[in-house]
Specification:
1 helix
Length: 100
């Protein structure tokens, strides 16, 4: 009985550390002169939780970012992150998204 309890406890300990790990998410990024838009979509059959940030480089070299934390995305839904600039246009944009 003690061995069985030990095996169950060990399995739960090992599984729980890897079952809820953050995984990088490859999100599409759109760059237009006034904004950077990042789309996170859930095509799985179960909800996912994501966090991350959208970043954009302006023509003058300055980097702007917008962050979001612990967003629950249900199956078939989307979340967007935007970075805006009023005067200087964006020349590059990228995202760093992690989901579990």
């Amino acid at each position: 009985m003690k061995l069985k309890s030990f095996i169950v406890a060990l399995t739960l300990t090992v599984m729980s550390s890897s079952a809820f790990a953050w995984v990088p998410f490859n999100a599409p990024v759109w760059v237009i002169p006034g904004q950077v838009k990042v789309e996170v979509a859930n095509f799985n059959q179960y909800p996912i939780v994501c966090k991350g940030r959208a970043l954009g480089t302006l023509a003058n070299g300055q980097v702007l970012q917008a962050e979001f934390f612990e967003q629950v995305i249900y199956p078939g839904q989307y979340r967007y992150a935007f970075v805006y600039s009023n005067y200087v246009p964006f020349v590059n944009g990228w995202a760093e998204i992690l989901c579990r």
